[in-house]
Amino acid sequence: MNLALSDEQVFLREAARGALSRFKTLEAARAALNGEKDALPDLWAVAKEAGWPGLLIDESHGGAGLDAFDAMLVLGECGRVIAGISLLGHLPATAILNDAPGGAPLLSELASGERRAAYLPVCPPDDLVNEWSVDPAHGSERLPAPSAVSDGAGVRVSGELSFVPDAPGADLLVGVAILDGPRQPGCKPVGVAIEADATGVSVQALQRYDSTRSLGHLSLKDAPATVLDTPAEALAGAWYLAQALIAAESLGSVETALDVSVAYAKERHTFGRAIGSYQAVKHSLTEVLRQLENGRSLLYYAGWARHGGPQEFPLAASAARSVASRALDQAARTMISVHGGIGATWEHDAPLYFRRAQLSRRLLGGTALATDRVAGEVIAEADAA
Asked: Of all helices (H) and strands (E), which one includes residue 126?
């Protein structure tokens, strides 16, 4: 197994970095938090130009035919500059459609970016919760997945999903519903595609902590949906793909936080010495570096495992998510600490990365759910040995 980046992957990463460098995303994020409307640049146009909406769509359907590893490189560059591009919701949705033989008619416009999809994040069962579940709007108890009832021509989906990434403004909603209703005998998960403007669909846009993160509470009441013939393994895989993508985004932010902190520790002097020469500062930065390298190794393995070792993908993606979320929290706090008083002020970028850390670690089941899944996988393997 060779986890080194190919020349094409290096080019993809550098091209993404160059495209995003044309925009002052951090200044825009600060302005948006200050209440300035339309402060955030339209980065979806950049994504369309670069072909990112079709990263995980086969070439036969107009996409790039790449894999999770490549998508992670792009998301990592987005995380470096806290760029609000709706790829976290779009890419897992296209992965579900790409794995459905009947999803082909929907893919061409999604691959070009003319239409945008949002993934309905429904978590597969694990050793703690034996049913498909969704994040709650309040509290910590997970709620049942949306239900689907056949109406002859298709199905009608009902349910509530909270904090759905990139739901506002999406044209198509793609995810999982439980046919015949959750907690019913014989129920099974099916892939569904729902037009966002269909009857019974309501999206409430939200802003929490991080102004660049598009979120929405989604309500479905007998919404007409197309059933996708996506295998159950691929439906579960979309959840873990989302875990890997948000992990990649988080590690991108860790890289910037560490780079900025190290540069400041070298140039800021006190008592005639650079503050980076003090043991406390060195140790805190080294710990961030350790977590970054650990997370990157796990992330690259998850990128390989999606197709190279599918049975290992759930564990690899969950482990990457768990480590990356904690690494970003540590990096953001260290960034503030190293910069001293200025690091906690509105004029500095550190609070923007701190906000990104606190929101990212709570989305898509959160760090705790990913960590519980890793523990469950490890314990199950130990019991089987």
From this structure: none
